[in-house]
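FAQ

Q: What does a record look like?
A: Structure on top, sequence underneath. For example:
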């Protein structure tokens, strides 16, 4: 085209034909662009045909297992495919094949708990863009599509699914890659959809009812977070609530009662809460079932009435249990029998738990003087008269709770009658062995002056109690260590005794050395012993890294002065951390200077741990130059530690050994190891089981400073063993 324009210039040099020249050039350029546009359109059409042809060829190669470099295994079945195609069609495969994962290295991925046909169909969809589905395996196909992150296929399912089990009238449907479906899918709207009360414009609740719901919601939140340590602050919130109507008061009583019997370990807390609320009383409503509708409704009366009704429940009040039992006995379907039995056992367990929780709550209310002693004796007699296992078990729980308060001199005769009757029930052996053992435990408890066994739990402890127990245990351990003679002092005493010889003391203070008969040594034996000692000495030198005979002394000294591999790693990592490099920079340094095996070896793990911990230690001059731990410096490097530890217990154990050696090097500073344990546990660098493994470790190579280290973290292990999930809110 350019050459054509140059040739035109030769014949259009004169000024008179300049316009002709310009018009000719423009027409030529327009013709050339038209031809070029046609060529582009032809090329684009060929690209689409070429892409379809390539995908068809790749699909054929997959079916014939030609040039396949990846295996998908589901159970005993395997399916061959190509890495590039899988990565291009699925974000899931792109993620596992992009990085140096195990699946990428081995060229194989294993799927569990999925259907092989569904996996095969989803892979075929990646190659062809088409999928045939029926209603039989719709849920399985959708599960695999979501797992492989096939967004087009999931979107197609979303358009097709009317309900969870109906897919386009159970017809066989062919999906294209655009996910279109023949027929419109109509979504069903629930007639009574849930809406928040504040946004539900159709709700006709009055302002008083909305206030009542707000009070109930506040009481529920308070009951969820109340503990022994937060009792005072939470009670101030309860007393600040405006409980001024009978409906609010009854709702509050119901919430407290249900929470108390559902969590019997916190019955003491809820009983004290009720004690603080006994002064609450409101005016009775006109529709109240109170005998005296004009009198006030008291919190104390309502809560005690609820306890009494629950205590006096009989079989007629357990209609759901009777119905389930009758249904189980009349059932003839063998396949349905196990399910009915599970439902009945579950309902019976919940009912039993509810009964025992109420018994425990009644006992705690008596201990805070909300119930009188005669009422308690009436409850005990009622439980004795029933004579069945459930009531006798309730009797054991009640006596365990209030037995110490009832067993005073004035009631000794009655208590003796109770326990003589208990012994009679044990001797008759008409109850189950479990109940007899419970009765025997109560009998032993009274014999022991109502002091529970050491291992018996007395409800959840506060953090202050846990710290005090740990402190007492640590003091006992220190006293025990102080009373135990130091091994070094013991060796010195033995050596001193050996130097003194077998000297016999006399009354005048003088000692006389006993005469020892001289021993004659054989010269040949002495020569053999000297040769053995020389050989042993040479073997020890070889173990220490000395060069074989024949090398120079300078080479031997250079070998002895060479720093260890762990020390070199520690120095290098410390320099990197001192420079303030990011975690990514340190990752790059490790990849460049260490092999994969070395980056997860014990030397590197210990060196990295010590380097990070050294950076976090500082001297606090305000606290008497006490060494403390800056937790933020370890937190910002926790990603670096987790990168190479990978929650492997063997590597986590190396971390704890490194901390133990660091404490020995620093002279066992007080509380530093415990603070480091806290940070490593909170940042999930070391798992709980690994701490226990370190505590019980008997590795002879890791005994230096071990006894002192274990004693210094005794409080940490006490907290680890006794921490209750219910007290996390503390």
């Amino acid at each position: 085209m350019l050459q054509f324009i140059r040739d035109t210039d030769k014949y259009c040099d004169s000024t008179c034909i300049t316009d002709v020249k310009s018009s000719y050039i423009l027409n030529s350029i327009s013709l050339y662009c038209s031809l070029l546009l046609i060529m582009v359109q032809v090329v684009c059409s060929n690209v689409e045909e070429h892409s379809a042809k390539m995908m068809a060829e790749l699909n054929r190669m997959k079916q014939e297992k030609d040039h396949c470099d990846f295996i998908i295994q589901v159970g005993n079945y395997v399916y061959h495919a190509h890495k590039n195609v899988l990565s291009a069609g699925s974000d899931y495969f792109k993620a596992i094949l992009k990085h140096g994962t195990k699946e990428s290295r081995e060229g194989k991925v294993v799927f569990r708990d999925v259907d092989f046909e569904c996996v095969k169909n989803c892979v075929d969809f990646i190659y062809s863009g088409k999928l045939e589905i029926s209603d039989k395996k719709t849920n399985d196909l959708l599960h695999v599509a979501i797992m492989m992150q096939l967004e087009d296929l999931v979107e197609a399912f979303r358009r097709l699914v009317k309900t969870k089990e109906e897919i386009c009238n159970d017809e066989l449907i062919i999906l294209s890659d655009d996910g279109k479906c023949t027929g419109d899918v109509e979504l069903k709207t629930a007639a009574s959809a849930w809406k928040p009360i504040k946004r539900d414009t159709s709700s006709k609740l009055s302002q008083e009812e909305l206030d009542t719901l707000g009070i109930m919601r506040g009481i529920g939140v308070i009951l969820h977070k109340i503990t022994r340590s937060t009792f005072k602050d939470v009670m101030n919130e309860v007393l600040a609530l405006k409980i001024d109507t009978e409906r609010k008061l009854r709702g509050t009583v119901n919430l407290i009662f249900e929470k108390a019997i559902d969590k019997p370990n916190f019955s003491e807390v809820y009983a004290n809460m009720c004690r603080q609320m006994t002064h609450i009383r409101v005016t009775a409503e006109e529709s109240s079932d109170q005998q005296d509708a004009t009198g006030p409704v008291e919190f104390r009366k309502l809560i005690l009435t609820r306890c009494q009704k629950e205590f006096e429940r009989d079989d007629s009040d357990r209609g759901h249990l009777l119905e389930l039992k009758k249904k189980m006995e009349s059932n003839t379907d063998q396949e349905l029998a196990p399910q009915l039995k599970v439902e009945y056992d579950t309902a019976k367990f919940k009912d039993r738990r509810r009964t025992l929780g109420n018994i425990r709550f009644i006992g705690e209310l008596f201990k805070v003087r909300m119930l009188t002693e005669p009422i308690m004796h009436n409850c005990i007699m009622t439980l004795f008269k029933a004579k069945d296992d459930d009531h006798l078990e309730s009797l054991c729980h009640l006596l365990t709770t209030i037995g110490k308060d009832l067993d005073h001199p004035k009631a000794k005769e009655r208590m003796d009658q109770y326990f003589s009757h208990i012994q009679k029930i044990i001797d008759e052996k008409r109850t189950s062995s479990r109940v007899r053992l419970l009765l025997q435990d109560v009998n032993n408890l009274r014999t022991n002056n109502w002091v529970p066994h050491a291992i018996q739990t007395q409800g959840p402890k506060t953090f202050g109690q846990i710290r005090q127990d740990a402190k007492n245990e640590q003091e006992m351990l220190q006293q025990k260590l102080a009373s135990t003679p130091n091994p070094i002092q013991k060796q010195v005493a033995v050596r001193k005794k050996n130097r003194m010889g077998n000297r016999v003391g006399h009354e005048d203070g003088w000692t006389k050395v006993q005469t020892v008969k001289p021993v004659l040594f054989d010269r040949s034996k002495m020569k053999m012993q000297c040769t053995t000692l020389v050989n042993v000495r040479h073997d020890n030198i070889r173990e220490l890294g000395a060069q074989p005979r024949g090398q120079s002394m300078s080479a031997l000294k250079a070998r002895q002065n060479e720093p260890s591999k762990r020390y070199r790693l520690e120095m290098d990592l410390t320099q990197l951390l001192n420079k303030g490099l990011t975690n990514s920079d340190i990752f790059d340094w490790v990849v460049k200077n260490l092999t994969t095996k070395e980056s997860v070896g014990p030397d590197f793990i210990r060196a990295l741990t010590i380097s990070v911990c050294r950076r976090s230690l500082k001297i606090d001059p305000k606290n008497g130059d006490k060494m403390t731990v800056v937790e933020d410096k370890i937190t910002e490097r926790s990603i670096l530690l987790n990168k190479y530890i990978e929650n492997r217990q063997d590597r986590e154990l190396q971390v704890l050994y490194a901390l133990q050696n660091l404490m020995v090097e620093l002279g066992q500073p007080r509380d530093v190891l415990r603070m480091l344990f806290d940070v490593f546990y909170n940042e999930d660098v070391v798992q709980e089981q690994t701490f226990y493994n370190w505590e019980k470790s008997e590795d002879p190579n890791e005994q230096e400073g071990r006894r002192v280290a274990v004693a210094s973290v005794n409080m940490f292990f006490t907290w680890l063993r006794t921490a209750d999930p219910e007290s996390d809110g503390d």
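Q: Is there anything notable about this one?
A: The chain is about 65% helix and 5% strand.
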